[in-house]
Amino acid sequence: MSTTTYPTITLSPKPDESEVQLLEVSMGPQHPSTHGVFRMDVTMEGESVVKLKPVFGYLHRNHEKIAEQETYLGSMPYTDRLDYLCSLTNNWGYALAVEKLAGIAVPERAEYLRVIVGEMTRLQNHALLVGFLMQDMGSSGTPLMYAFREREKLLDLFEALTGARMMCNYMRFGGCRVDLPAGWLDQAKKVIAGFPKFLDEYEALLAGNEILMARTQGVGVLSKELAVSAGITGPMLRASGVNYDIRKVDKYSIYDRFSFRVPLGDHGDVYDRYMIRLLEMRETVKILQQAMEQIPEGPIMDPKTKVRNFRPKAGEAYGRIESPKGELGFYLVSDGSPVPYRYRVRPPSLVNLTVLEEMCLGHNVADVVVILGSVDIVLGEVDR
Amino acid sequence: MLGEGILKGLAVTARNFFGSYVSKQRLTTLQYPEERSPQIEAARSFPFLVFDGTDAEQGLRCVSCHICEKECPPKCILIKKSTDKKPDAVGKMQFYPAVFDIDISVCMSCQICVEVCPFDAIKMDVVYDLSTHDRFGGLLLDKQQLAKSNEYYRQIHPTEAATVDAARAVERAKVAAKAKAAAEAAAARAVAAAAASTAGGETK
Fold first, then answer.
1. Which residues of chain A are within 8 Å of residue B11 when distances are taken between CB atoms?
2. By CA distance, what is B12's nearest residue in A?
3. B17: nearest CA in chain A?
4. Which residue in B has a C-alpha nearest to residue A75's C-alpha?
C-alpha cells in the first residue's frame, strides 16, 4: 500500500507455563479504550499477551427476541440501536430483508436516497473510527475532535432529513419515510465537496507521523487465510488483501450504476486497517457525488405496501448489505402473521471480534488497545 | 528526516488553533445553554397531542382509537376511552380519551405513532431539555401536559403543518358538501313528500 519499509516486530515466543509467572488482568468493562462495556481477560507474561479471552454480553438487550414479538415495522426503530453509529445502514439491511421476504419493489428515487444516506453513514462511521483509533493510541482529543467536527456536519444533514441525528428510523419497507426537504441536496453537495479537504487535512496531520507508524505497522497482523476462514468481512478483511465487498459482489440496490474502486491492503496490520478507512472514505465521496448528480424525481414509497397490518407471506429471507463495519445480515422467517417467527441479526462487529486473540498474542498490552480499536466494534451490535 | 511527520501534524494543529480566532468556520463549538444551534425543522423529540381552537379539552383531535397505543414499539402510551361522546372538528360525534398518558422515559422518539395516526392528532415536539428531578412522575406526561395547540404545531413544523391543515380543510369541505347535499336531498324529499300528500289529498 505504501512505500515505507515495514519494521519487523519480533513476537515473544509462547512461554512454558510451569516456568514463568503469569499475570491475569481484567481490561474493562468500563475502560474507556474498550469502546463500550466490553471486557478482556488478558493473561500476560511480563508485558506480552499469552492469552486473551473476550467477555461480552454486558449490553445484551434481547433484541432478537423482542423483535419476534413486535410487528415488522415495530422492529425498525430497534435496528437503529444495534450499531448506534450507523442507524441508517441498519435500517437498510432490515428493510432489504423484509422486502426480499415480501417481494416488494423499491422505487428508483428511494434507492438513490438509500444510497446517499447509507454512504454518508459510511463516511461518518469511518471518520469516527480513525479518530477513536488515535484516541486509543494516546493522542487525546485533537484528531478525534477534527473527526467529530466533520461528522457533525453529516449528522446535521441526517437531522434535517430524518428528524434525528443518530436514531434516524428513516427507511420503510418499499421505500423511505420522507422525501428530501427543500435545499437539502444543495447543502449535502456542499458538505460532500468539502469532505476531501478534511481527509487531506487529516492525512497531513497523521499519515506521515512517526509515532503512528511505530505503533501500528506490523502490529496485530491478520493473515489472509485466517481472515477468510474466520468469516471476517468489511474493511478488516480488505485490509488483509481479500477483494470482497458486498456492494461489488451482490450489487444490491443500485450499486452497479456507480463507478468506484475497492481499496485493498497487503499487510493486514493496524496501519493497513487505518489506511483502508481513509481510502474508502475517498471512494465513498465519489459514489455520493455520482448519486447526487443522478437522483431522479419520482415517488419514494411503493404504493402497494401498507404501513399497518403488514403481513408478508410465509417463507424465509436473508438480506445483507455492506455496512461500514462489514457484512450486516438480517435473517427472517415468516409464518404469515404480523410478527416474524424468527428474526436473526448477523452482526459484523461480533464476527470481526472473534479473531482478537489471534491478533493480540505476543504483543504488548498497550498494543491490545490499538488492535481492538482497529477492529471497529460497537457494543450495541456485538451484544444485541 | 525523523520527526518530519510530527512537525507537519503540529502545523495543522496550529493552523486550526490560530484560525479559530479569525475564521468562523474553524470555530465549531457553541456555549450551550447560552448559545443554541438553530432549530432544524424536521427535528423530533417526544410526541404531543394537537388540539384545535383555544380549549384543550374541547378541541382535542384524538378520538381514542388506540391505534398508536397498539403500534408503539416500546408500549409507552396508555389510553382510556371515554364513555360519552363529543363533537369533533367536522361536527361528528366521537369518543375522546379520558386518560392519555405517555411515559417519555420509555418513549424512544421513533415517530411511529405519528405515522399511523389517521386523525393527525399526535405529532412530534421539538423540546429537548426535559430533565427533571422526579424520574417517575416528572416524565409521565398526562393529557393536560401533552395537549398543545395547532398554532404551536404550525410554529415548530411549518411545512408539515401546512400540508396537514390543507388535507384537513379538504376533508372538512368534503364533509360540509356531503352534509349540504344530504340536507338538500332531505329537503327535496320533504318537498316531494309534501307534494305527494297534497296530490293524494287532491285525488281523494
1. 204
2. A205
3. A142
4. B73
Contact A209 B111 (CB under 8 A): no
Note the pTM of the prediction, 2 decimals.
0.84
Indicate if ipTM > 0.85.
Answer: no
Cα–Cα distance, A58 to A169 (Å, whole number): 25
Q: Is the peptide bond before B33 cis (omega within 30 degrees of 0)?
A: yes
Q: Which three cell numbers stand for residue A83?
A: 450499531
| Per-residue cell: A146 | 477534527
Q: Which three cell numbers stand for residue A159?
A: 437531522
CA pseudo-torsion sign B116, B120, B126, B128: negative
Q: Could A159 and B42 be called an inter-chain contact, meaning their C-beta atoms sit closer than 8 Å? A: yes
Which grid coordinates belong to A316? 424465509
Separation CA A289–CA A112 (nearest Å): 12
**B86-97 pLDDT, tens per residue?**
777 667 778 888
Tell whether A206 is within 8 A of chain B (Cβ). yes
Distance from CA of B163 to the nearest CA of A (A): 13
DSSP, collapsed to helix, strand or coil, labels residue B78 as strand
Q: Model confidence over B48-107: pLDDT tens digits?
A: 988 887 777 777 888 888 888 888 888 899 998 888 887 776 677 788 888 888 988 889
Q: What are phi and psi of B190, to 5 degrees?
A: -65, -45
Residues A340 and A1 sit within 8 Å (Cβ to Cβ): no
Instruction: Please name the residue that has the C-alpha cell 444543495.
Output: A186
The strand pairing partners of B93, in sequence order, are B87
A77, A159, A207 ranked by CB distance to B110: nearest: A77
Among A288, A77, A318, A149, CA closest to B73: A77
